[in-house]
Amino acid sequence: MVLLRIFIVKFQFSSAFLAMGAAGLIAGCAAPPQPVLDQRMPAQWTQPVPESADAQTLGVEQLHGWWQRLGDPSLNALVDQALARNLSLGQAQDLLQAQRIVLGVANTPYLPEFSAAINTLQDVSATDSFFHASVDMLWDPGLFGARESGQLAVYADLLGAQAQLHQLRVELVANVVLRYLDIRMAQRQHALLQERIALSQRLVALAGVRLQQRIDSSEALHQQQLELAQLQTERAALQENQARAAHALAALLGRITPEAAWLQADANARLPSPAALQLQILPADMLRTRASVQLAQAQVEQAAAKLGLSRAALYPRFALNGSLLYSYNMTQNQHAGSDRMPQLGPVIDIPLFDWGRRKAQVDANELAMEAAVKAYRQSVLDGVAEVESALAGWAAQTVRLQSLRAMQQQLEQRSELLQRRQQLGLASDYSVLGERRASLSNASAQDVAIGAQALAYVAVFKALGGAPLPAADSAALAQPAVGAAPDAVQRPAP
What we know:
Elements: E1 2-5, H1 14-27, H2 60-63, H3 73-85, H4 87-104, E2 113-122, E3 129-139, H5 146-212, H6 218-252, H7 291-312, E4 317-329, E5 334-335, E6 343-350, H8 355-423, H9 429-464
Antiparallel strand pairs: 1-6, 2-3, 3-4, 4-5, 4-6
């Protein structure tokens, strides 16, 4: 590398400006590379989604507030609290704001820099002492795409911070809804389990009486005792899961302890209605809102910026250096007129001996950008697979719930028949209680199926990247650009 520093004396600035102008013309066409991304989306989902006659296409507005479709005001309030109080989300917001501040000054390294200095020094012969006051200027315009690539790197960091924040929003809302549903389902299961245990205890007592009266064998008694023990084991596991969900929800809300009601049994605990869990038409184009796709887009932009900077390093670096010096001879008590002339001239950095290393860096960055482009496409494919899996889970739980409801109708019919037989003296209380316990078991399985369907419903919108927009952008919802975060900035123009 050879460094040439040329100073043109007073009133001879034309050569410097001509050199800078020529370099600017040469570098004017240089810009960061713009990689071509594979933006293809599936025309429709493979997994069939049953649609009602009045099904409508789900828009971006519903995607960003999907949990509100469940129609639970308590859940809506908890999501709002989590968005306002969650500390991890607050950290990501601070980091995003920091990146926005950096983006605001991204162009300053390529503006003229001025500095002032005051010092004293002696000449070579050590006979005179001088007082120097100077104003210096250095301007690196960032030719050959260096300025644009530097700005693109800062923009990519901002886009990445937006994607991270969006990902946290998606996960936070989904986790709040999941933990809330876990608690509600556990409350209902706990109440049903208590009733089932009471029935089992009654059945054990009746089985003992039947054994004493030699109506039934000891095997029947042991079977009833075994079922009672299994129910008690289920209660212990259910209490543990309920406590885990309650404490997890409290942590998401920024609380130390959960609400006491979250740890209690509640037969009337609210679960989403089947109508609320019906999926509308989901355009595959919604995958563009996924945080993973946005993050992959940011990584592509970062790779493009690095490639642009490495390409710019292959060319000579031009900068403009100037200085205005005031000198006073303190020994002779007079101005040093010959040292007061302004200086202005170009600084030229020509890569010679390390050009091969710089070219190798360009080749490496080109491969890195190709890898980032492939990672972007893979993030889209992963999103398709995740949504398809969630839709398959939702459809399976829907069929399961329909089957359980059909079984419940048969159990209710058998229970009514046994009650009439009991009234006529043709059936014992033992048979009626057993049928009642089976009906309660099926009701419990239905609640589990509703909960599983709700979890699959949450998984669909989580896979699509559904999350609330920042308050500043909530009034202007629009379909984001490819790979752009909901509040993304525009790619710097070359």
